[in-house]
Specification:
- The protein has 163 residues and is mostly beta strands.
- Helices cover 11% and strands 42% of the residues.
- Strands 7, 8, 9 and 10 form a 4-stranded antiparallel β-sheet that branches.
Length: 163
Amino acid sequence: YMDTSDFKLYNLSIENDIDKYKVRFRQYNNENDIFQEIKLNTQEGKQKIINKQNNFKNLDDIDQIRYKNLDLVPAIKISYKRSYFNFRNVRITIDKNLQFESTKNHSMSKNKLMSKFNIVEYKILHQQKPDIESSFFQNPVSFSKYNYGIENLYNLKPTIFVV
């Protein structure tokens, strides 16, 4: 994930429900291809813009980019194992073995953090909304791997997280 050296994007995501965005570079399943993903949350809704990158051989090659008049540098590297499932017109992902790693751009941090929890996420695949939430033993909550990692590696404002 990319951010400014003073975590402007992180602060935007904490302070605002809309008019915020995240910029990340991603590799899937240890493949060589690298993708830039920009996740936008605006009044018109959520959107993800994905562009394949040909100018980087690995994620460590990414040093700095400019986006919306901000100089962004790598802020955190997040890795995990993901499993996919389909259930009642819903895609369910389970992320485990989450690892958060600080970058050379932010020296006031811990180096690594391993989580002891798994993340279950569901996305509705069709317009018709199935009653998926009744299948869970507690109400779903919003969770950001990026915010959690930044807060715990860099000792910033904690996220409200209910288990």
